[in-house]
Amino acid sequence: MSNHHQNKKSYAEMLELVKQDLTTGVGRSVKHESAAKQVSGEAVYVDDRLEFPNQLHVYARMSDKAHARITKLDVSPCYNFPGVAIAITAKDVPGQLDIGAVLPGDPLLADGLVEYYGQPVLAVAANDLETARKAAMAAIVEYEELDPVLSVEQALEQEHFVSEPHTHKRGDSAAALAGAQHRITGQVHIGGQEHFYLETQISSVVPTEDGGMIVFTSSQNPTEVQKLVAEVLGVSFNKVQIDMRRMGGGFGGKETQAAGPACIAAVVAHHTRRPVKMRLPRMEDMMMTGKRHPFFNQYEVGFDDNGRITGCEMKLAGNCGYSPDLSNSIVDRAMFHSDNGYYLGDATITGYRCKTNLASNTAYRGFGGPQGLIMPEIILDDIARRLGKDPLEVRKLNLYGGEGRDTTHYYQKVEDNALPQMIDDLERSSDYQARRQAIREYNAKSPILKKGLALTPVKFGISFTATFLNQAGALIHIYTDGSIHLNHGGTEMGQGLNTKVAQVVAEEFQVDFDTIQITATNTDKVPNTSPTAASSGADLNGKAAQNAARTIKQRLVEFAARHFNVTEEDVTFRNNHVLIRDEVMPFAEFIQLAYFNQISLSSTGFYRTPKIYYDRDTARGRPFYYYAYGCACSEVVVDTLTGEYKILRADILHDVGASLNPAIDIGQVEGAFVQGAGWLTTEELVWNDKGRLMTSGPASYKIPAVTDMPIDFRVRLVENRKNAEDTVYHSKAVGEPPFMLGISVFCAIKDAIASVADYRLSPAIDAPATPERVLWAIRDMEQHQQQARTAAVAETV
Amino acid sequence: MIRFLLNRELRVEDHLDPNMTVLNYLRTQARKTGTKEGCASGDCGACTVVLGELDGERIRYRSVNSCLTFVSALNGKQLITVEDLKQGDRLHPAQQAMVDCHGSQCGFCTPGIVMSMFALGKNVGKPEKEEIHEALAGNLCRCTGYRPIVEAAEKMYDDVTPDSFDREQADTLARLREIQPQAQAELKYGRKAAYNPTTLAELAALKEQHPEARLVAGGTDLALEVTQLRKEIDTLIYVGDIAEMKQVQVFDDRIELGAAASLTDCYQALSHDYPDFGALLHRFASLQIRNQGTLGGNIGNASPIGDSPPALIALGAQLVLRQGEQSRTLDLQDYFIDYKVTAQQPGEFIEKVIVPRAADNGEFRSYKISKRIDDDISAVLGCFNLVIRDGRVQSARVAFGGMAAIPKRASQCEQALTGAEWNRDTIEKAKQALAQDFSPISDFRASREYRQLTAVNLLTRYFVELESPEVETRVTAYV
Question: 2Fe-2S ferredoxin-type domain: from which residue to which, for each copy (chain B) (predicted)?
Answer without folding.
Answer: 1-85
